[in-house]
Amino acid sequence: MRAALSLLALVIVAAIVLSLAKKQATALKPPAAGASAASGALPQPQAVGRQVQGAVNDAARQAADAASAATQ
């Protein structure tokens, strides 16, 4: 009897885990119709790279100005 209840509990737990895995798998799939609209909302990698490089250059320029002002 105890073995039968353990087996039944194992089957129930497996069914719950498989159900949750199925829900997660369907949530990861992008919708076919909205895929083109969603990709237009993402920034271009080159634009992001230029923005980051500009910020780095501004910070370097400010650091150089501060260092030259401190030595004068």
Query: What is the averaged pLDDT score?
Result: 85
How many individual β-strands? 0
Q: How much β-strand is present in the residues?
A: under 5%
Task: List low-pLDDT spans.
Answer: none
Secondary-structure element order, N to C: HHH
SS-based class: mainly alpha
Distance between the termini: 89 Å
Discrete helix count: 3
Percent of residues in helices comes to: over 70%
Largest sheet: none
> In angstroms, what is the radius of gyration?
28 Å
Task: Tell me, briefly, the overall form.
Answer: elongated
What does the model show?
This protein has helices at 2-28, 35-41, 45-71. The mean pLDDT is 85. The chain contains three helices and no strands. 85% of the residues lie in helices and 0% in strands. It is elongated. It has 72 residues and is an all-alpha fold.
Topology:
Layout: H1 2-28, H2 35-41, H3 45-71
In short:
The chain is mainly α. It has helices spanning 2-28, 35-41, 45-71.
Key features of this structure:
single chain; 72 residues; mainly alpha; 3 helices; elongated
